[in-house]
Amino acid sequence: MPGIGQDNTVSRSLSDTPNEASGRAARALPNSPLGSVQGTASLPNIVTFAHADSFGSRTSQRAFGPESPRTADAGRRSLSYALRQEADVYYDSRAATHDEWKRRDRTLQDYYGNNPQLLPQLPFTWHHGWKRWRLFVFAILVFIDGSLIPIVLYYAMRYAGHVQGWIIFAVVTSIWGGPTYIEFGIRTWRLMKKERFYRPLGTNSRWCFDTLNWASVLTITAVTALFIVGSAPHIVWLRVLCMPAPAILYSLGGVLGLITLFNYMNWPAPFRLSSTGKGEKVLPGVYYFIEDVVAVNAGAGRPYREAFAARYNASPRFRQMLFKQSVFWSVPALLLAGALTVIAVVHEVPATVAYGVCWAVPFIWCAVWGWITVIWCKRDMVRERVEWEEKYPTEKHETATNNIPLATV
Fold first, then answer.
1. Which residue spans traverse the membrane (predicted)?
2. Domain enclosing residue 27, as ranges
3. Pick from 247, 249, 245, 246: nearest CA to 257
4. What is the distance, to the nearest Å, from the Cα of residue 141 to the centroid of all Cα atoms in its chain?
5. Model confidence pLDDT, tens digit, residues 174-224
6. Is the distance from CB of 118 to CB of 147 less than 8 angstroms?
7. Domain end (from 42, 75, 108)
8. In terms of domains, do 33 and 154 share one?
9. pLDDT for the residue 85
10. Stated pTM of the model
């Protein structure tokens, strides 16, 4: 093993165990902290690891130091973090939790209303935390259960097993939608719980469901009806069974587009839409879908609804982004559903081909649109941060600490 040279560099081979290496280093440096305190060491500026490959014929080195691209104290940071300047300490709503919600004495909307120079932060992120994994796993299960299973079971059982159609769809209908139905039951139970943590803002009723719940009822009803009608005859109506996936686009895209139309025309809400009461101004459709999914399905609860409302009211760029996303998702969904309906009913297209197209295309489209949305929203939120810093320079921030929405524990 090489010793410690004049360049203040420590080298260690892969054959050394941590204990052996630290022991030899301690003996070589009797006056160092490593020799006096076991298990601690003052590392040099550059640490080089020399190790042999599997054939023992050559060595490679990795250096970590001030001149390396990434140092130990420089973690990964997104572009939005890189653009931020140092600011005074203030209550960050990203720290809002269920326990914190129970003991505070005011809402996040009140807090950000008293501190208009602060850009409201959302207590949810895709970068860390268990909430993101819950949504991610659910999305994967929906894709597998909603698209892959109907396609794989039908073509495998028909062409490989030569099974009759009514038996095939007896199996498909008994399996399809399992994760969706379970998640729908869980979110409904959360909204009905005595504790109002998951409910929309402005209501305490246990029977006041949010917009996504009602949209889910419409979608599940339409899909179930199509499955029953198409698979009930002994000779199944395959073209009817092509329509469940387009029906999902019709239902969700139609609800999204109709709500967005109300927002564009400045029509008042005919009834409660999540956190928007009857007679109030309707917000873009994507607003309600995001609010309901993160608050209930991801478990972020009312703190997210409050922070989301505060962000929408405070940031013009955020409002513009949500309106564009509402149009971006609703109009193409309805157009795609119409095109798939034509494919399903036109007899020039074989029913077996139409079945695969109608079940696969909607989910592929959702994946592509989701990828575009992520890139688009990241760009808009970076611009939002820049515009906010220009409007409220960091050095002028003066937060009212007595307005922090936390009650004394």
1. 135-157, 163-186, 207-230, 236-262, 327-347, 353-377
2. 1-75
3. 249
4. 14
5. 888 888 888 899 999 999 988 888 999 988 888 889 999 999 999 999 999
6. no
7. 75
8. no
9. 55
10. 0.72
